[in-house]
Amino acid sequence: MNMYYLGIDVGSVSTNLVLIDEKLKVVKKLYIRTKGQPIVVLKEGLRLLREEMDDFGILGVGTTGSGRQLAGVMVGADVVKNEITAHAVAAMECCPDVKTILEIGGQDSKIIIIRDGIVYDFAMNTVCAAGTGSFLDRQAARLNIPISEFGKLALKSTTPVRIAGRCAVFAESDMIHKQQTGQNIEDIINGLCEALVRNYINNLCKGKEILPPVVFQGGVAANVGIKAAFERELGLEIIVPEHFDVMGALGAAILAKEEVEKTGKTGFYGFDLVNIEYKAKSFECKDCSNMCEVIEILAEDSPIARWGDRCGKWCSKIQKADINITSFKMQKV
Predict the structure, then answer these.
(1) Phi, psi of 58 (to 5 degrees)
(2) Which of 30, 82, 236, 238 has its CA 20 to 30 A from that of 113?
(3) DSSP 3-state of 113
(4) What class does CATH assign to 2-88+248-275?
């Protein structure tokens, strides 16, 4: 039986799963649209892994992304880490000398500064849609162009067209105006790529020294037009790693390996957890002026985890949960 480490990255746009072997080689990866249903999609991803892989077991599992806590509770994760750490670990594995990481996902973007093998500084942008992959998806759909062809068309541009990129609404209005004035579609798309890069640099790179090697990851790294625009703007070569689209999950898998090597065991519940019915709900605690929103995760209608309460009143009531995969019942210990 082949034994692997599993990394899970649950984001607002995509849920990614990666299996790596003892040598940190990626043996399987899945990229699935989250579609606002992280529980359903995570279970589907685990089901696909089980169906598509032959005779294998899991040595350890790590989770990351905006849904890392939820995923960690569901699978019995050995390590739960934020996106900055996971992306940095993966980038340093692919490019040991990396000093700057550019990451653009579906709903947010980030820059990570690495010095001497550790995260020295970082910044995230979760506010402006104009600097994200979802904005490019919408514009590609509006122009009736497959997103996979978007970047290639940008490279065919011959005449610079400047698009206002500080705001998604202004950028879209400016694109429509440029179309109405008869500008070539290739020039408009290239202008959009350059606008997104300017937005990224103006919002995230201020006060930061961008040194090579520079690694570009996240789903938008597939867009050769954006990569070319970054190279022109920064005057540096941009490296796109092989598994650019699942770097968070890759980093989580690597971190899981490191954790299990220290503890000697894994908390992974097993693939039969896909048969358990999970639910997530929230409620507002009104016991004090904090008015905390408490998130509660239930399996087979029994609470297995809570978080969000500042005082710990609610989460402390669930000290430990044991999932009996055979009977699909929760037994609090």
Answers:
(1) -110, 125
(2) 30
(3) strand
(4) alpha beta
